[in-house]
C-alpha cells in the first residue's frame, strides 16, 4: 500500500510522540508499504527506506513547539494540512494514516479524495485538555468542541488504532461499529549497552550519589504525572530509609525551579536531585542506577510510554494502582500502590529493603516486556490491524 502518514509533530526529536512515529514509519516500511510522512518543518533529519519525509512549509521564527496544545501548534497544523492536501492532489494513496489531530485532518481529506482513513489514537484530546489546567483549553465550549471533533473522527474512520485498552473501550463506547485495534507502545531505549556500567559509575560520581539507594523518576513534570504525590511521599520514605536519594529526571526549566522551591520548603533538599531534561542516550544509565523506578501518575487513561522502558530495564517499578498503569502492569511484575502519599511511600520503602523481591520483579518484568511489547510483537500487531482495512 502507498500510505500518507500525517503526524503533526516536530520530527525527528528524541521524545514521546516523535519517537512513536519513527517506530510506526519504520514498521510500516518493513511490512512492505510505501510511506509519505508529513510533519512540521521542525526537527532533525531522519531517513528510512521506503519512507519519504515531507516537511510542511517552514513558518518564520518558529523553531520549537512545546508539548501539548498551543496556538503555535494550531498554526503549524494548518500548514501540515496544506502539505497533505497537495500530496493527495498530486499522488494516488491507498490509505491516510493520521496521528492524533492528523486524523481530524484526515476526515476532511478522506471526504475529498475518497481514501480510507486510519486514526492513530495515542490519547483522548478532550482528556488531554482537561488535564492541562489551562484557563483557555479547559473552557466548557472548547472541551465541547474537542469532544465533538473526537467523536466525529471516530465515526468517520475506517480503523482506529488505540495505544491502550482504555482508549479502545472509549472508541467502542462512542461507535460500536468502528473497527478498533490495540497497538501498545514499546520501549524507546535500546537494550543496555556494553558501556552501561561505566555510564552508571560516571553519573553516580557526577551527582555525588555514593552507594545510596536511589529512587528514580523520568519524564515530564506535568501535574497529571503525579509529581505532587511523589514529593509528598518523600519525607515518609526518608523516615523509613534515611540514606535514600530521589532523582527526578525531566521537566522544563520553569517546572524544575518550581519543584525545587517546593523541595526546599519541605526541607528535603539533601535527599532530592532535580536534574531537568537529560539526553535520551542517558536514560538507560539513569534507570540502571536506580534501586526503584517510580511512575506516580494520578490522571489520564493512556499508559505512559516510559513504562515499557522501565520494564525492559529490569529495575523494579512502583506505580499507582490506576487504569493508566494496570492495563499493562500487574502485581507479578511490579508493586502497585494506592495513589496517596502513605501507600506510595510504603511501597517504595518495601522494595528498597527487600532485595529478593526487587530481583524477582525485575526479572519477571524483563521477560514480560520481551514477550508482549517487543518490536517484533509491535510489527505483527500492526500487520494484523492493517489487514482489517483490506477486508
Helix and strand layout, with pairings?
Layout: E1 2-6, H1 16-30, E2 34-39, E3 51-55, H2 71-90, E4 95-99, H3 101-113, E5 117-121, H4 125-132, H5 140-156, E6 159-162, H6 165-174, E7 180-182, H7 196-206, E8 214-218, H8 227-240, E9 245-249, H9 253-266, E10 272-276, H10 283-288, E11 292-295, H11 306-313, E12 317-320, H12 323-326, E13 335-337, H13 341-353, H14 355-372, H15 375-390
Parallel strand pairs: 1-2, 1-4, 2-3, 4-5, 5-6, 6-7, 8-9, 8-11, 9-10, 11-12, 12-13
Helix pairs in contact: 2-3, 3-5, 4-5, 8-13, 11-14
Number of helices: 15
* Class of secondary structure makeup: alpha/beta
Largest sheet: 7 strands, parallel
The rounded Rg comes to 21 Å
Helix content: 40-55%
Distance between the termini: 14 Å
- Compressed to H and E, one letter per element, the order equals EHEEHEHEHHEHEHEHEHEHEHEHEHHH
Low-confidence spans: none
Fourth-level CATH superfamily of the largest domain = Glycogen Phosphorylase B
- Taken as a percent bin, the fraction of beta residues is 15-25%
Q: Mind telling me which CATH architecture of the largest domain this is? A: 3-Layer(aba) Sandwich
Question: What integer is the average pLDDT?
Answer: 94
How many beta-strand runs?
13
CATH fold type of the largest domain: Rossmann fold
The count of domains is 2
Morphology call: globular
Can you list the strand order of the major beta sheet? 3-2-1-4-5-6-7
State the CATH class of the largest domain. Answer: Alpha Beta
